[in-house]
Predict the structure.
Amino acid sequence: MKPVTARKRSGTGATVNQMELRPENSEHLQLIRAYEAGSVQIGESFYASSFLLAPARSPVEWQVEQFSQINESDFAEILTLSWDVLLVGTGDQHYLPDLRLQRMLARAGRGIDFMSSRSACATYNLLALDGRAVAAAIILPLRASAVTGR
């Protein structure tokens, strides 16, 4: 939301500053509209498997089912994209990569943050709406217990 200019309230003798909020024009951005345990809505489409996302690019499937399986080749495609910050949603919990993967990603010379997939979805939208060069690699499901029925 973008602030609109303050207004002067008349008739009371006092000056009151009001801020009116209007939605930003985000039609051209690929944004996450909703998420639940087993799926994420981007625009009008729902995704039930892991995906890669950038504001100016349609989501593509990411062949990662759980963070423990992740390896260097899983980042090959996303490292070719233009971004300053990569958010890696690690699934239902927050995990950090092993030392080998950390070294490989450090060589990319760009910011990479690991967080739960739910947090990555929310953070992605904030950065995209702020005009940041962001990309996201989201592992689904967001919450294992909801998917398995526990």
Observations:
- DSSP finds four helices and ten strands in the chain.
- The first strand starts at residue 2 and ends at 3.
